TrEMBL record, chains A, B:
Keyword field contains Disulfide bond: no
An example Gene Ontology molecular-function term: metal ion binding
TM spans (from-to): 389-410, 416-442, 454-477
Protein name per the record: Magnesium transporter MgtE
Nucleotide-binding among keywords: no
Length: 478, 478
């Protein structure tokens, strides 16, 4: 960067609130001169120059995670400008923090040299995480600068799926033997320049690297210096295999309040560790993915994705929705004769379908959540079904009666009121049944129960609702 | 508990998979003799007795968080049985871990003495967390057994709202002065019986308890023993006030990869700390609450809540849904004349409404997520609206044309095809606009943008879709 400026240092303890509004204002104001800024030219307009200096100083004070958050919140042009102005030494960290969609746009805006500089400081596991999004040439050159051990680590990490522990484990850890005194451990630690992030425990291994236990730092600090590690260490260790699912690992971290945990191979040899910061990201992504999936969004979308990218991300569920809506439409089509005779049916049928969809969504959301928490075993499904059917029956009788009376008064037709009560109750029962069965079936089939569940349940309660209501009306009112 | 049994100890390093299926089977099998078990009588049936011993041994090996998870997954009777058989010394921890709804049912099943025993081991902040759900008498007696300092801590914690940092901060922490050598700190720590959970840093305070900085254990362990704390400590500390919102605190933990952080009062005095394990719970609950709220569930529901409790938890959004469905129905009612003339309109109108609802849900879900991440400032809303309208326009023209052609062929009426294209495009534009505006307006009004957003958007796209489609048809086809 060619612009000289003073970066204010954080002198007191007050934490810096991330003023995203101000960054949005500044980057918008600077947009007209963005090409000059990116080419390193002097900005002559004094006011704009002041704004530029302010923006740079704000950005340089930000934590990489905050920079990532800011970048995600900006439209493409402002994003490129801010990315150009952010501290280049943090580029690698920022790339790790941003969402996949935004990461692609940032990497596209960088040349090979910038990319190599950005990934230079990254650990092996971090480089592996980015590798899939980087041009092959960059990955190849970045690997050349590493030693054989690190190259092997990167390749090992890249060999696992994104949802496996192996893909997010890191290789920076401290291990010791069981037969040394705590004092020796403390002396050994002092020889490190610095300890890996989140070091809350030291891993105890034998001469074959087989994990024997862990020595929590909390215990090491209060232990008698003469005491042997084997007498202080914990042996009931929550540990993982690289093939383990990250969501299950995250749930274990959550339940057992872990900060780090060892990863071992099939021979119980220590090969890496996973840390709570990665697990927090997994938990956030997992619950968010459920939410996005239920609404029929395929993946986390760049807020300011080009319109066609957004269309692509959403088209599938819209297409499925159209197909199911078409089926519902054909159901109604089959009863056109009845509707011609009593046109009120056309006005009332969406009420029956709508309450079924709403109630079904409540049921399915609850079940999807219980499944995500691992609380649903096969024997439970039947009981839950019974309970949900009970709830549906109560709701159906209450709300069905309300709407039945309203319809009776509105159309002065007692029969319509009765059909309304029956149809609403039956559609709520259908919603409850399908709301339990869809996620259970998806789960049995090895699919994510959240995926499009909202679209599916609505499809069933729409077609079902129309069929039940118009069918009953045709039988009893014609 | 009167039953003698051997509790198998965990001898090797393998972690215990939580076999929830087996616990469900055993508790169901033991249900017929549950009253004998609860009264401490001998079970004569040998097979059942074997099962009882197995269930007890499984339960006693479980971590309190796993016991909580098991309890949440069980219907009422089995839940009471398992709760009775679980290790009583962990009762307090389990009560802290279970969801609010299940906690109430567990507390109801315990008498004063059991409750007092359960909360006896809890820290001040934990007792405060439970206090709201405990009978007043129990809270009063539990406080009598504590010293004045702890009583003050419990009362302080209880004075904050559930969503404030003060309600979840804990008081167990280690603090030191800045002007001592690291060696002195290590000696000081060794005098502790044990260090508080998650101790990754020691807080540095002056003689008035004003926070000066933090000494990360990672740094302490590698520091020169002669070095003074003030030369090793970090002074740019992320710290919180007890009034701060817990969700914002959780986001800070997530961004800055924190394990613990200090809480200070208005005079910058250190009064407590918050830890990552609480924050992980906050993150999980926050994203889950968004999911439940969008579907119109008021709160996390006990899976096996009595039917009437479930009805109560869900009635409000169902009632709102009924009102909006009634409005949509009246919109259709206004066009009964048109439907009588062209009955095909009745069959086609749900397609227009349906695709609007689906697309609107996609938009609103994305916006709610961006808001939860703090990425949406006022200036952005206008741009997002422009982008979403663009996406809607493309989708409307594509899918509108598809359905327009289908309708044209199906009903052999070119006019209906054109009305279909126009109505679908307009309803998608309406969905995009309202999908952006609802959460922005909710947020401006200080309400949770996730709350019932799915029900609201569907209401607009239903009534709007019927109005647009039937309106256009009446104008152009009659």
């Amino acid at each position: 960067m060619s612009i000289e400026q003073d970066i204010p240092t954080q002198t007191d303890l007050d934490r810096l609130p991330l003023d995203i509004e101000r960054i949005h204002e500044l980057s918008e104001a600077l947009l007209p001169v963005s090409s000059q800024i990116e080419e390193g030219q002097e900005i002559e307009d004094i006011e704009l120059n002041t704004k530029l200096v302010e923006l740079i100083s704000i950005l340089h004070e930000l934590h990489p995670a905050d920079v990532a958050n800011v970048l995600e919140s900006l439209p493409p042009k402002e994003r490129t400008l801010v990315w150009h102005l952010a501290a280049p030494e943090e580029d690698g960290e920022v790339l790790l923090e941003v969402s996949d969609a935004v990461r692609e746009t940032l990497i596209e805006s960088m040349d090979t040299e910038e990319l190599l500089a950005a990934v230079d400081d990254l650990d092996a596991d971090e480089l592996a995480e980015l590798a899939g999004d980087l041009p092959h040439q960059v990955v190849y050159e970045a690997l050349q600068t590493r030693d054989a051990e690190e190259r092997a680590q990167v390749q090992a990490a890249m060999s696992y799926e994104d949802d496996q522990v192996g893909a997010i484990m890191d290789f920076e850890l401290v291990s010791i033997r069981a037969d040394v005194a705590c004092e020796v451990v403390l002396r050994y630690l002092r020889r490190f320049e610095s300890l890996p992030d989140h070091t809350d425990k030291i891993f105890v291994v034998d001469h074959d690297d087989v994990l024997q236990g862990v020595l929590p730092i909390r215990k090491l600090l209060v232990a008698d210096p003469e005491e042997l590690v084997e007498n202080v260490m914990a042996t009931d260790v929550v540990r993982f295999r690289p093939e383990d699912n990250v969501e299950e690992a995250a749930q274990a971290f959550e339940r057992y309040d872990l900060v780090t945990a060892p990863v071992v191979d099939a021979d119980k040899k220590l090969i890496g560790r996973i840390t709570i910061d990665e697990m927090v990201d997994v938990i956030r992504e997992e619950t968010e993915a459920d939410m996005l999936n239920m609404a029929g969004l395929q993946e986390e979308e760049d807020l300011f994705a080009p319109i066609l990218d957004s269309v692509k991300n959403r088209w599938m569920w819209l297409a499925i929705n159209l197909c199911t809506a078409f089926i519902a439409s054909r159901v109604i089509g089959a009863f056109e004769g009845s509707i011609e005779k009593i046109v009120a049916l056309a006005a009332l049928m969406p009420i029956v379908a709508g309450i079924g969809g709403n109630s079904g969504n409540q049921t399915i959301t609850m079940i999807v959540r219980a499944m995500a928490m691992g609380q649903l075993s096969g024997t439970q499904a039947g009981r839950l079904l019974k309970k949900e059917v009970g709830v549906a029956l109560v709701n159906g009788l209450i709300w069905g009666t309300v709407m039945g009376v309203v319809s009776w008064l509105l159309y002065d037709n007692f029969g319509i009121g009765l059909v309304m009560i029956a149809a609403m109750t039956l559609n709520l029962l259908l919603a409850a049944t399908v709301g339990v069965l869809i996620p259970v079936a998806m789960d049995k089939a090895g699919r994510d129960p959240a995926l499009g569940s909202s679209v599916l349940i609505t499809a069933v309660t729409d077609s079902g609702g129309f069929l039940i209501f118009l069918g009953l009306a045709t039988i009893f009112l014609m």
